[in-house]
Amino acid sequence: ESIESETAVEYDSSSALAAANAVATLLGGVTVQRSSTAEGGRVRVVLGSGFVMPAALGGTPPVISDAAAKSEAPGSNANAPAPLDGSSIPCVK
Question: pLDDT of the chain along its 93 residues, tens only?
Fold first, then answer.
């Protein structure tokens, strides 16, 4: 698979491996690989063509196909977060 289609976190030395693993985990467990293109103890992130930002990082959930949308009850959205009404937030005085 070419680097353009595969998402990867690249690092150049063992001193940057922990940081590369942390970034890879944050991005959803993408591939970590040693590379000379990430120089000076830095990491380099290459986003492949199929990369989807994890929802926890503000990514957009995948679009539901027409067939899947029609199978849901009208007006329901299984992926919608619960509405915020403030009832779970304690009042601090």
Answer: 444 578 999 999 999 999 999 999 999 999 999 999 888 889 999 998 888 888 888 776 656 555 554 555 555 556 666 665 656 656 555
Q: Would the pTM count as exceeding 0.90?
A: no
| Terminal C-alpha separation, the chain | 58
Bridge-based pairing of strands 8-11 and 43-46 is antiparallel
Backbone angles phi, psi at 31, to 5 degrees: -65, 140
For residue 45, give the DSSP letter: E
SS3 10: strand
Q: What six digits make up the tokens of 33?
A: 């690989």
Is the distance from CB of 21 to CB of 33 less than 8 angstroms?
A: no
Q: Which residue has the tokens 């005085």?
A: 93
